């Protein structure tokens, strides 16, 4: 998928994931968002393209930000990743945090080296 393309499959998957984490039935989310259950099903399975007003309604019904549903389609998503990282690390003890910090630093260095090497080709 190219830059600036919207991945409706991933958006639908994220909507379904958040909905199921909140233990909502598809019909309940559709009702809260003011759309039909059939439309919600088509959104979650990427059988229809999602209009901006609809994604806003769904995000509001799920109590999440729109960027949390769209993050792989956005270029500037640091707050979403910051939140996901914080949630992942929230139950770590100090030793785990230290170890993970070192691993992240190492991976960051390797990723940057890989990008730099591919840029010189």
Automatic annotation (TrEMBL):
Keyword DNA-binding annotated: yes
InterPro entries reported for this sequence: Cro/C1-type_HTH, Lambda_DNA-bd_dom_sf, TransReg_Diox_bact_type
Keyword match DNA-binding: yes
Pfam families: HTH_3
Gene3D superfamilies named among the record's database cross-references: lambda repressor-like DNA-binding domains
Keywords, alphabetical: DNA-binding
Domain HTH cro/C1-type: start-end pairs: 15-69
Matches recorded under CDD domains: HTH_XRE (cd00093)
Protein name per its UniProtKB record: HTH cro/C1-type domain-containing protein
């Amino acid at each position: 998928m190219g830059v600036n393309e919207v991945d409706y499959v991933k958006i639908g998957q994220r909507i379904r994931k958040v909905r199921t984490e909140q233990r909502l039935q598809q019909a309940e989310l559709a009702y809260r968002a003011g759309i039909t259950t059939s439309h919600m099903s088509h959104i979650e399975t990427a059988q229809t393209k999602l209009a901006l007003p609809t994604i806003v309604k769904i995000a509001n019904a799920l109590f999440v930000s729109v960027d949390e549903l769209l993050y792989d389609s956005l270029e500037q998503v640091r707050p979403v990743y910051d939140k996901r990282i914080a949630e992942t690390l929230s139950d770590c003890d100090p030793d785990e945090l230290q170890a993970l910090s070192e691993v992240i630093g190492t991976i960051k260095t390797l990723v940057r080296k890989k990008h730099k090497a591919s840029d010189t080709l």
